Amino acid sequence: MQIYNQKITNQLKRADGQLKGILRMMESEKECLDVITQLSAVRSSLDRLIGTIVAENLTICLLMEENSEERDAKLKQAINMIIKK
């Protein structure tokens, strides 16, 4: 069973590319505001990625857990990771 599809992989690769671009910006001493703008874009991208994984895969991941107590614990853990700011 494939949990992470190509869409998710592509989103993560795009975020990786953005981070590498930000590092290049910092090395070439670009304006602070420009770096922050790009970091904010990466953060938004990763937030969307988390949402995609939750929406498309959390059920599958939890269904693989046969023990209901473990499943409930994993669900609570996932929710806490999502809402933690």
Describe the structure.
- 82% of the residues lie in helices and 0% in strands.
- By secondary structure, the chain is an all-alpha fold.
- The mean pLDDT is 86.
Features of this protein?
mainly alpha
Spell out the blueprint of helices and strands:
Layout: H1 6-27, H2 32-63, H3 68-83
Helix pairs in contact: 1-2, 2-3
Give me the Rg, rounded: 17 Å
What is the mean pLDDT? 86
Low-confidence stretches: none
Beta-strand share of residues: under 5%
- Could you state the order of secondary-structure elements as H and E? HHH
Structural class: mainly alpha
- Summarize the biggest pleated sheet: none
The DSSP helix count reads: 3
Count of individual beta strands:
0
Shape: elongated
Straight-line distance between termini:
31 Å
Helix % is over 70%
Briefly summarize what is shown:
This protein is mainly alpha-helical and about 80 residues long.
